[in-house]
Amino acid sequence: MKRVAILISGGGSNMLALVASMTGDHPARPVLVASNDPAAMGLARAQGLGIATAAVDHRPFKGDRVAFEAALLEPVLAAEPDILCLAGFMRVLTPGFVARFEGRMLNIHPSLLPKYPGLHTHQRALDAGDAEAGCTVHQVTAVLDDGPMLGQARVPVLPGDTADALSQRVLMQEHRLYPACLRRFADGQAAPLFL
Ligand code: GAR
User: Where along the chain is the active site annotated (predicted)?
Assistant: First the structure.
């Protein structure tokens, strides 16, 4: 059984979708949910499900990413994860942290990468007049929102869409895509999934 640690920063709806999927004959189980924000709603939600949690506030580290990551590593390594899933984790990780989990760290990003790495993806898709938007699950490398793609799901951009409306439509697909990609990854399937 593969052990999965999940890093979050906010509500944790993707984390909940991942956790809900890891039952029965699924080859993985959640062992830790960790956040850089002690007030993240997702932490309370994970606790409610009986999952071990850890909070390492990034703010006292005042921009010292390496020191923050060293503190974050403690509970993460203690959980002995085989796979690390970033699920709405909003801190950029240093190459040193990424290297520790090379080939076994996944991320979900709310755009059709390589379009719109970084923030404000939905507004950028609207501003560009795109007919489609979506989300991407990929392996994490030292380059932000880059790395081998594991899957993508698409949604239409509708007339009158706002960034909020579009983000909700994409989020519903994130909740389908990420569990499906994690399962395939844990099973050793390499081919990307398109929903
Ligand atoms: C999700 O839309 C996720 O794709 C995005 O943050 C949201 C987190 O929601 N992640 C990023 O933008 C990462 N760069 P959640 O906390 O409800 O899962």
Answer: 109
Atom index in ligand 1 nearest the CA of residue 16 equals 18
- Domain span at residue 43 reads 2-109+136-152+178-187
Indicate the pTM of the whole model: 0.97
Report how many domains make up the chain.
1
Q: Examine residue 116 and state whether it is found in any structural domain, yes or no.
A: no
Strand, coil or helix: 118: coil
The response to whether residue 173 sits with its C-beta less than 6 Å from ligand 1 reads no
Query: Do β-strands 149-156 and 132-139 pair in parallel, antiparallel, or remain unpaired?
Result: antiparallel
Q: What is the ipTM of this complex?
A: 0.98
Whether residue 126 lies inside any domain: the answer is no
Is residue 165 a part of any domain in this protein?
no
Catalytic residue among 58, 109, 138, 175: 109
Which element (helix H / strand E) includes 21? helix 13-21
CATH number for the domain spanning 101: value is 3.40.50.170
Q: Please name the residue whose Cα sits nearest to atom 3 of ligand 1.
A: 88
- Please report the pLDDT score of residue 13 as a whole number: 98
Check pLDDT > 90 for residue 190: no
Q: What counts of helices (H) and strands (E) characterise the chain?
A: 6, 8
